[in-house]
Design goal:
About 20% of the residues lie in helices and about 20% in strands. It has about 100 residues and is of the alpha+beta class. The longest helix has 19 residues, at about 10-25.
Length: about 100
């Protein structure tokens, strides 16, 4: 599996930076006046879709008690270094990755 899960770093990093910039603008009081170049979506509903993630026994998570858990969306996976980066944090799989 590709470390960048199919999207090369030169594409995913600018996309993530753009997302952060947009979210910072929305979060800052008075700095968000709307979106002029948004795509129109009609008959819209909220749903969910599958994204790469990790499932396993968590140890040392800052907000979830130790035990079974599932990560947020996975953006980087390096089997050799035994690390992964999700949307919210780094994970280390010392015992290897079962796939």
């Amino acid at each position: 599996m590709d470390k960048w899960l199919g999207t090369p770093p030169d594409l995913i990093i600018p996309r993530l930076r753009s997302l952060v910039e947009d979210l910072e603008r929305v979060a800052a009081p008075g700095s968000f006046a709307g979106v002029n170049d948004a795509v129109i979506i009609k008959n819209c509903i909220l749903t969910s879709r599958s994204v790469p993630c990790l499932i396993g026994q968590m140890h040392g998570h800052p907000t979830i008690k130790d035990g079974a858990g599932i990560t947020s969306e996975l953006f980087y996976l390096d089997r050799k270094r035994r690390v992964a980066r999700t949307l919210s944090r780094w994970y280390r799989f010392d015992d290897g990755l079962l796939i």
